[in-house]
């Protein structure tokens, strides 16, 4: 179990370079299984969820060569099969994308039912509805989803719910289906557009990614491709919200500002200075934060993945703020932990009312999931005294070198390895 020790009170100052997007990489890696020639991917984040996905596609028979920390080459040697290893698939929900890519490659897929997690129920009914519409038979037994289709045939699919995962999965399967598939009421996240661009680079024919309707004309063969994964807007937003909380001035570099418009707008509303340049965003806060109402929505709305961090920021703003989580049923796992640090938050269903302004105090807290963990990191940066954050491995699922990045900006932060003392390097003691 990894632990991170933080001492709050320092303002963040300096520059941070953002890595490639976790949620684009996790959608693109299963798509590599369709390639008949070499694929090179740049800007792949070196995080545990990606490493798990790499082990899964390697286990399925792909040869992988690492050409640097964030550049990988894939040689689609003879793929061994359509049933990825249970122990690895269970570790990450994004392994559900293997259903779409293995169906497209083999016409068959056997994947464990993806586990739930601390965001509330995470059904996959829209995924299965889409696969069935394409002609696949679906049987769930003994915790496994067995999909089989003699041939995938294009269909007109209208999603009942805007789902990133279902949109990714059906783009993957439809890419190899015979004829045209029309997907409606789809997710419009930048990661969906990045996947479509990668698939098209391999020879797919996908139009409309990023809009409400995606049209896919299936092809029989996919070549190779070279592709650079887009920057991680959620990592970028994490650092923007962190410096807004601590005060100071940070340049968040290597980003696509358009992907962060909802975050920029909300920060400006809360009294934070945000200067947008072509590939970087400068965030500065010297004065008091202004309380606000934060509502999450599918892209281009405020991202649900930054809701926990937004809550920390609102807890630091003197006055009453309201958070409405419109995407997931149960994404308030971080509230109990923030209350241990003195935050005053009342939750009713999907709404949390924050009585902000009271200074937070450092405490022993635990990361319940990836983004809750990131929120507790930011809380520890502004709390008085020491915060010991346990279960920090959740954080390493989605952030590369986050302690080093925060320390380079002036944070007092240290990862504890088993047996380490809890004092921080340079800590006044
Ligand atoms: C993706 O999860 C992301 N994960 C999540 O990021 C992100 O929070 C989420 O999209 C929303 O943006 C990856 O990309 C790997 P959804 P996903 O399907 O695809 C309901 C992170 O921290 N739904 O868009 O699982 C569902 O219950 C992670 O990086 C159905 O009802 O999310 C939820 O309420 C956390 N039926 C809503 O849709 C379905 O078949 C949105 O879920 C599918 C989803």
What's the topology here?
Elements: E1 3-7, E2 12-17, H1 22-32, E3 39-42, H2 48-59, E4 63-66, E5 72-75, H3 86-89, H4 97-106, E6 108-112, H5 125-133, E7 137-141, E8 144-148, E9 156-158, H6 164-174, E10 180-184, H7 190-201, E11 205-207, E12 213-217, E13 225-228, H8 233-246, E14 248-253, H9 261-269, E15 273-276, E16 280-285, E17 293-295, H10 307-315, E18 319-324, H11 333-340, E19 345-348, E20 351-356, E21 364-366, H12 370-382, E22 386-390, H13 393-396, H14 402-408, E23 412-416
Parallel strand pairs: 2-14, 3-13, 9-10, 17-18, 21-22
Antiparallel strand pairs: 1-22, 1-23, 3-5, 4-5, 6-8, 7-8, 10-12, 11-12, 14-16, 15-16, 18-20, 19-20
Bound molecules: ligand EPZ
Number of domains: 2
| Beta-strand content estimate | 15-25%
Give the CA-based shape.
Answer: globular
- Give the C-alpha Rg: 22 Å
How many helices?
A: 14
The CA-CA distance between the termini, in Å, is 24 Å
